[in-house]
Amino acid sequence: MPTPSQSLDKSHYVIRGGMEGRARLRILSRVMWPSTLNLLQRAGIRAGMTCLDIGCGGGDVSCELAHLVGPSGRVIAMDIDDVKIAIAREEAAALNIPNLEFRVCNLCETEPTAEFDFVYARFLLTHLPDPCSLVAKIRQALRPGGTFVVADIDFRGYFSYPESPALARYVALYTEAVKRRGGDPNIGPRLPTILTAAGFENVQMSVAQPAGLDGEVKLISPLTMENIADAVIAEDLASRTEIDRIVDELYVYARMPGTIGCMPRVVESWGQRPPA
Ligand SMILES: C[S@@+](CC[C@H](N)C(=O)[O-])C[C@H]1O[C@@H](n2cnc3c(N)ncnc32)[C@H](O)[C@@H]1O
Fold first, then answer.
1. What is the CA angle 112-267-196, rounded to 5?
2. pLDDT exceeds cutoff 80 at 1
């Protein structure tokens, strides 16, 4: 079982945490849900499984996993952000989900033992300086034959129509901020190779990219820009004035009928720990 870290360090993470970060993740999870459910089913989620959701954020997918594995299964969800975990615990208690447990934990400092049938990681590896070593640990956390499912971004896949200069600037700022903090904003296409190198078998992949002319998907870009403002300023990439202008322009674009709003391209990959 991974052990909680004593010395948590969230400085590598570019997106605002706590309450505001939680609100954005709630919208993100609703926008992603059709493709997430499809992915979990294709990867073989089943009743009775013991699951681990790493970098679980507010626990939106953790709750769904708890429903999918049912009362005979259980889910452990971990994140470094103690505020998000506290909110997630309260929400899960209010929803009466007894087979779900949240833990505050720096995953880079864990020592796992093989106790899980299914490990899920969404939008986590992109933020880590050494994603390969975490994937090696995930392999250790799985029972032989267990499945690892990962979904992560390729920011090069962002698009707008009509062309939005504000979106292009937001993509450039996000990309540079993540790189400066040691992450890879375009990690998506690397995922199958990372899984194969870590010793996973039957590695597969697919691509999801929610997009639309209306609805919450159109809010993702302005919300994310707002939530990376502190990191962008700390990295000296743009002024507060410029960020406020980009956010305004992104909201104007989102509200305009006929404009296309989208998520970045999301690469999904999954594979099994070889049987013993
Ligand atoms: C973009 S959010 C995704 C949350 C969730 N997986 C989802 O898709 O809704 C990334 C999460 O990873 C967490 N995180 C980043 N680095 C971490 C680390 N080293 N250990 C544990 N959690 C980490 C952040 O606190 C954040 O909640």
1. 50
2. no
CATH topology assigned to domain 18-156+182-210+264-272: Rossmann fold (3.40.50)
Query: Rounded distance, CA 123 to CA 151, Å?
Result: 6
Least confident of 35-39, 110-114, 189-193, 201-205: 110-114
Residue 228: DSSP 8-state: T
CA of 195 to the centre of ligand 1 (A): 19
Which residues on adjacent β-strands are paired with residue 266?
153, 208
Write the DSSP symbol of residue 114: S
Residue 247 falls in which region: left (phi positive, over 0), alpha (psi -120 to 50) or beta: alpha
- The whole-model pTM stands at 0.94
Flag whether pLDDT at 68 surpasses 70: yes
Mean per-residue pLDDT of the chain? 94
The Cα angle at residue 199 between residues 61 and 206, in degrees rounded to 5: 45
Taking the centre of ligand 1 as the mean of its atom positions, its distance from the CA of residue 19, in whole angstroms, is 14
Q: 122 φ, ψ to 5°?
A: -120, 130
Tell how far the Cα of 78 is from the centroid of ligand 1, in angstroms. Answer: 8
Asked if the bond preceding 98 is cis, omega within 30° of 0, the reply is: no
What is the domain partition of the chain in residue ranges?
18-156+182-210+264-272
Report the atom number in ligand 1 closest to the C-alpha of 108.
19
The binding-site residues of ligand 1, defined as CB within 6 angstroms of any ligand atom, are: 13, 15, 17, 25, 28-29, 55-57, 60-61, 79-81, 84, 106-108, 122-124, 127
Average pLDDT score over residue span 151-167:
97
- The CA distance from 49 to 59, in Å, is 18
pLDDT value of position 10: 58
User: Which range among 19-28, 114-123, 250-259 shows the weakest confidence by mean pLDDT?
Assistant: 19-28
